Amino acid sequence: MKKLLLSFIFLIFYIGNSQSIDVNNPAAPETSFTAEQLISDVLIGGGDCTEVNFVLLQDNPAGAGNVNLRSWGYFDATGTSFPFQEGIILSSGFAVDAEGPNNSSSTTGTGAGWPGDNDLKIILDNQSGDNQPTNNATIFQFTFVPVIANVSFDFIFASEEYENDFECDSQFRDGFAFLLRGPGIPNDSGTPYGGTNIAAVPGSANVPVSTLSIHANTFTCGTEIVGVNFFPNLYISNWAGNNQNEIQFDGFTQPLSAQATLIPGETYELKMVIADRGDSSFDSAVFFRAGSFDIGSLDLGLDLTIQNGTARCEGEIYTINPQIANAPPGTTYEWQYESPLGSGIFLPFIPPQESTSLNVTVTGNYKLIVDFAGVCESEGVVFVEFAPPLTINPDPTPLILCDEDNNGFAPFTLSDADMDITLG
Known about the structure:
Elements: H1 2-17, E1 22-23, H2 35-43, E2 52-58, E3 72-76, E4 86-91, H3 118-128, E5 134-144, E6 150-159, E7 175-181, E8 196-197, E9 235-237, E10 251-253, E11 256-261, E12 268-277, E13 284-289, E14 312-313, E15 318-320, E16 332-338, E17 346-348, E18 358-360, E19 364-371, E20 377-384, E21 386-387, H4 418-421
Parallel strand pairs: 14-21
Antiparallel strand pairs: 1-3, 2-5, 3-4, 4-13, 5-12, 6-10, 6-11, 6-13, 7-8, 7-12, 9-10, 15-18, 16-17, 16-19, 19-20
């Protein structure tokens, strides 16, 4: 009886203290974003060089009038241990059903029922060696113009097909694809859409991410070769005792990265698609990390201020190192400073400062203008504050204490003398 009571108390504590991701919360401004805004302002993170145009949105038609029936949206995982703090989700069911805890092994988006996708059907048929329909396909298809050569974004695949013996049942093996097409991209997807599928296991020979290629190593389907077409180290169980309450799905992958090498300034098209296979049950989803799709951006970091406790010390040389990855050849840099401070007027340095970083010693706002080889121009501003040295009282008033119990010790609070010590 005692053990049972302790187990019950632990269960109440666990449920009360575990947290779920939040999907399409009406209180979140991003919930009202269009699909295009989610790509440009959440997945890419905005910026001067963000050029995105939506081509196709396919989703649950009922979601147009009810956000709880929408098959895509915004998620916030603040306060949970889910690997992504926020981002966007595409699902083969109702996106809100992704919220934890995992109290059902067959979340479906009951009665949803909308069309599948022929391109994804072909990919899954080729992978499984059979012929099955797809249903409930959610598609984000858009064009973008990169200003850097090497682009990538982070994602997690999650599914109710995990932990239910469907990993080896190709009839119901849900799937997804990221089909990329444009200049220099191979046409090897085998689909009418063309292009290549970049939803592959990183470091593999273009092995598609699926419940077959990534699942628990407690069983095999008979075709797996570890490190070749099977990667159990990339699987996270969310079943039974492993349920962390963040999401509903029985299992999901480690964070993965879709990558491609592109030609800066050219236009590319990306089709993100996920669907049920063989049925409309046991849904799956893809989570995308906010801000991870870097197609060329400029980040000078956070302001450094006395108020935030991040200011530098007077006499120090501080180097501003902007985060600019994979800038193409021919990219130029111009640093400017605000004068006078607070005026909004920025002047170029004399002589010009044209390197990727800048050494500063004076409090001020500093601007960097980056021209990505004529493709796009972006700028950023950062405030750096230098704090004066503390004034120390060479002869502070002594702290006089009374040892009331005559044990040789007396408690005191040194911070009580702060104003005296610092002449403050």
